[in-house]
Amino acid sequence: MPTPPASGSPDDRPPLEPIVVLRPRRTDALAELFREMEAGTRGLEPVAVPDPHSWDEGETQELPPVRTEELRTPRRGDRFGFGPGLRRAAVTIGVGAAALVGFGCALLLPGRDGEAATPAPSPTASAEATPTPTAAGPTDPDGAGTLREGDSGPEVTDLQQRLLRIPDVYKDGSTNGTYDATLKEAVARFQLWYGIRGDENGVYGNDTRLALESRTGTG
User: What keywords are annotated for this sequence in UniProt (predicted)?
Assistant: First the structure.
């Protein structure tokens, strides 16, 4: 058990009592605000609000009845019954008709030399008067001067002589100037070996001619 402190010890002192701190309220600003509100309402005049139950319904006036004749007859129209919209439409139609008449008169007026203006020719008449150029003969898709099986002449002979200069293409071939099946096979073989694809197979066209002349000379 704890023993009480001896007399004269430092702990033998009177107990401290709590201190209450009073903070004054700032009511001055609130009072000043109330005074300003009262001063602001002094200059206003009170307005009496009438009681809605005290209104007299007898003061209201009824509208005069509408006559049937006024509904049938236009109020703002003329004696024929035309309103503003119909008058605007009539004016627009009249202006358009006058413009058409003026344009027609301008076409019929004589020219500077006193002669009547001639109407412009129609596109159909111009097409009929212009002669249609005759179409040229069908062009060869492989180019001009193309040789194929069935042709003959000095150009075929020149082809045969050039193919004989290419090894193993037209070996021991004839130079009789006739484009026969043997010559066609030789031309097709030359096209296949040298990768010529611009002409028909076995047809001596422009692409085949350029490739053959570049390898055999132009003489």
Answer: Membrane, Transmembrane, Transmembrane helix
pLDDT in tens, 154-179: 999 999 999 999 999 998 899 999 99
The gap between the terminal CA atoms of the chain, to the nearest Å, is 144
Domain that holds residue 159: 154-216
Q: What is the distance between the alpha carbons of residues 160 and 202, in angstroms, rounded to a whole number?
A: 13
CB count in 10 Å sphere of residue 186? 21
Cβ atoms within 10 Å, residue 119: 7
**Structure confidence by residue, pLDDT tens digits, 12-32:** 677 777 776 666 666 677 778
Residue 158 domain-assigned (yes or no) = yes
Q: Which of 148, 153, 185 is nearest to 169 (CA)?
A: 185
Residue 34 lies in a domain: no
Here the CATH number for the domain that contains residue 209 is: 1.10.101
Tell whether 208 is covered by a domain. yes
Backbone angles phi, psi at 164, to 5 degrees: -65, -20
- Is 169 a member of any domain? yes
Q: Distance between CA 60 and CA 18 in Å, rounded?
A: 80
